[in-house]
Amino acid sequence: MRVYGDVQSGNCYKVKLLLSLLSVDYQWVAVDILAGETKTEQFLAKNANGKIPLLELDDGRYLAESNAILGYLATATPLLPRDPFQLAKVYEWLFFEQYSHEPFIAVARFIAHYLGMPESRQGEYESLQAGGNKALAIMEQQLKQTDFLVGNSLTIADIALYAYTHVADQGGFDLNRYPAIQAWCQRISSQPNYVALG
């Protein structure tokens, strides 16, 4: 299988980390977002939405959206619970990541880390701080109670939220305010076959 992605993207890193934890062989195809490589006719034929990551299966089918890819790859592994309520809790966190976490933390990181904090986006960057800290506070509250986001074992909910959380400082968020998150990050980075961002 192939993964089309950018090694600095948290959404792409989710897929890379999961595949490494599962010891799955794959080919990484580097795609430069800033150079417009996701907008080419060739790429749009694979994913009409023009976004990465994109998973190409051995049979030629394509799957987009990072959390959908995580769900597919984790099927029938310990990283995706079989109990219906626990599974729903995983999806709860995946939706939280996309709607209450990533739009603040990932975008602030993009403005500061990728773009170098252009003056024209300074106000937007500052406006993202409250929402990002709210998301981190919600995670902190859960992680004071359990080792991982859904109980005491690693799931794709953790992988999805780890991707941008562990580099949240690159978006101006002080993780020293969140000791339970810091301990959780350490638990994830200590997993067998862990691979770092980049």
Description of the molecule:
This protein has helices spanning 10-21, 41-46, 66-74, 84-114, 122-127, 129-143, 156-165, 179-189, and strands at 2-5, 27-30, 54-56, 62-64. A four-stranded mixed sheet has the order 2-1-3-4, covered by helices on one side. With 198 residues, the protein is of the alpha+beta class. It has two domains: 2-74, Glutaredoxin (3-Layer(aba) Sandwich), CATH 3.40.30; 84-189, Glutathione S-transferase Yfyf (Class Pi), Chain A, domain 2 (Up-down Bundle). Strand 1, helix 1 (10-21) and strand 2 (27-30) form a beta-alpha-beta unit. 51% of the residues lie in helices and 7% in strands. It has eight helices and four strands; from the N terminus they run E-H-E-H-E-E-H-H-H-H-H-H. The longest helix is centred in the middle third of the chain and has 31 residues, at 84-114.
CATH class of the largest domain: Mainly Alpha
Shape: globular
| Largest beta-sheet details | 4 strands, mixed
In order across it, which strands form the biggest sheet? Answer: 2-1-3-4
Strand content: 5-15%
Estimated radius of gyration = 17 Å
Sequence stretches where pLDDT stays below 50 over 5 or more residues: none
CATH architecture of the largest domain: Up-down Bundle
The N- to C-terminal Cα distance equals 20 Å
**Estimated structural class:** alpha+beta
| Averaged pLDDT | 97
Looking at the chains present, what oligomeric state does this protein adopt?
Answer: single chain
The total of beta strands comes to: 4
Helicity, as a percent range? 40-55%
Helix count, DSSP H or I runs of 4 or more residues: 8
